[in-house]
Amino acid sequence: MTKTTLATFFLIFFFIFLYVLGFRLVIVLTDSMSPTMPPLSLAFVAPTSIVKPTNRSIVLFKFFNHLVLHRVVRMEGNKVMTKGDNRNFVECSRIDDVVGVVVFSIPHAPLVYAFIFALFITSVVKEVLQRNEKK
Q1: pTM of the full predicted structure?
Q2: pLDDT tens by residue, 4-16
Q3: Please, what are the domains in the chain?
């Protein structure tokens, strides 16, 4: 196997490992968190059992049966007030509705996906061609 193929498999297993731990990968669909996270950004969300939400952190929470990524503006008891960086209104939710905290994000994630997929396909094709040459 080539180094690129091994690296790709390592990344896949790494993401599976993070998923088992409770991490989520979320694609930002709206501009509510712009410019911090523009639409089509990929957010890596740690579960609240690993990272606790604090003021100013960006959290993933349930809001009327939807998952929303917004910034915490205030926490009071079992309530958390959140607001999108590009919004003028605040939502109030229960702290139990917070699913996780954004650890980091990658802007314009589809380009990253396309690049990783292209590397993977290239390495697989190269591997197949090399095996055919040896026969």
Answers
A1: 0.74
A2: 778 878 888 888 8
A3: 3-134 (2.10.109.10)
